[in-house]
Amino acid sequence: MTTKNATIKDVAREAKVSVASVSRVLNGTGGVTPQTQKIVREVAARLHYVPDSAARSLITGRTHTIGAVLPDLYGEFFSELIRGIDLAARARGLHLLVSSSHDGVEDAAAAVRAMRGRVDGMLILSEYVDAAFLDANLPANLPAVLLNSAVKSTRYPVLNIDNRAGASAMVQHLVSAGRERVAFIAGPKTNFDAQQRDKGYRAAMAKYAPDAPLNIVAGDFSEESGYRAGRELLAQKTRPDAVFAANDMMAVGCMLAFKEAGVRVPQDIALAGFDDILIARYVSPPLSTVQVRIADLGRVALERLASLLNPEDSTPASVQTLGCDIVVRETSGGSVSAAAPRRPRRPLPP
C-alpha cells in the first residue's frame, strides 16, 4: 500500500479502530483512551497521513488557526512576542496567522476583517483598537484577547503589562543612585504602553525628585528617535544626569548619540530603557532596563485565548496585569543593592 495518499480510513484500518475514533484523536475532542490515542498517532505518522484541513473545517467548524494582529513585525519585542505565541499555539496543535497594522486604523481594520472565517480566535495588539473598533470589525462569536490595551470590556479579556509601576521603579532607582535630573524619552503619544510609562515617570519624579523639573523629549520607539532625542538632550543648557527611555531601542539610539559626542555612560549621564530585549545585555556598557518577559506575555495571551475556544469555559472577561522588574546593569551607575524596592511580581500562570 502506498502511503503518499493515505486516508483516514487507512489509518483506522491499520490501527484497528473506527474512523470516528481516529477523527476524535486527531481533532483532540476526547472520548478516546490514552492507549488508543498512542496507537492512532503512531499509525498516522507511519502512513504519513495528512488531514484534509478544508474538509475537517467544514465538519468541525474549526480551522485550528489563531490570528495575531500586531502594530509591526519588525524588532526584537515583536519577534519575542510572536515566539511566545507560536510556541504555545504549537503545543496545542494550533497554527498561527500573523498580520500588522502599522499604517493606521483602516489598516488594522483590514487586517482583522481579512482573518474572519480563517481563524478560530484572535490576539490583538493595536493602538487603534477601542470598543467601537471591535464592534465594527469583530463578529460577536469570534473569541479574542486584547494585549496592552486601555479597553475595558465584559466581552474581551485584556492582558496588560504594569508599565506605570515599572517606570516608577526605574526612576526611583536612578534617583537612589544619585541622579536627580532624570530626563525621559517618550514613546508614541497614542500608544497605551507609552502613555502608562509616561505617567509612571511623572509620578515618580514628583515623589522622589520633587525639586527637579520634568524633562520630556519626543520619541517613537525607534532607534532613530532615540538618537535624535539624545542629541536634543545634549544641546540643552543644563544637561540631565540620567536619561530614561520608554523602550530599549530608543535607549540604544540615545547611547550612540552620547558616544559620538564623547559623553560617558554612566559617568557623565546614566541611561536606562524598558522591555529588556536581548540586545540590552550585549551593548557596551550593558543597559539597565525594566524587564518584561515578552515571550511569556505571548504565551499567557495564547493560553487565555485557547481557553475561550472551549465552549465550556465560563471565565468572565477581565483585565490581567503582569508585573515587571528592574534589571540593574552598568549604564545606570548604581548597584543592585541601590536599586529601588521591586514591586512584587504577580506570578504568571504555569
TrEMBL record:
Gene Ontology molecular-function annotations: DNA-binding transcription factor activity; transcription cis-regulatory region binding
Protein name stated in the entry: LacI family transcriptional regulator
Coiled coil residues, start to end: none
Domain HTH lacI-type: 6-60
Keyword line: DNA-binding, Repressor, Transcription, Transcription regulation
Lineage of producing organism: Bacteria, Pseudomonadati, Pseudomonadota, Gammaproteobacteria, Lysobacterales
Annotated SUPFAM superfamilies: lambda repressor-like DNA-binding domains (SSF47413), Periplasmic binding protein-like I (SSF53822)
InterPro entries with a match to the protein in the record: HTH_LacI, LacI/GalR-like_sensor, Lambda_DNA-bd_dom_sf, Peripla_BP_I
A Pfam family that the UniProt record links to this protein: LacI
Top-rank taxon: Bacteria
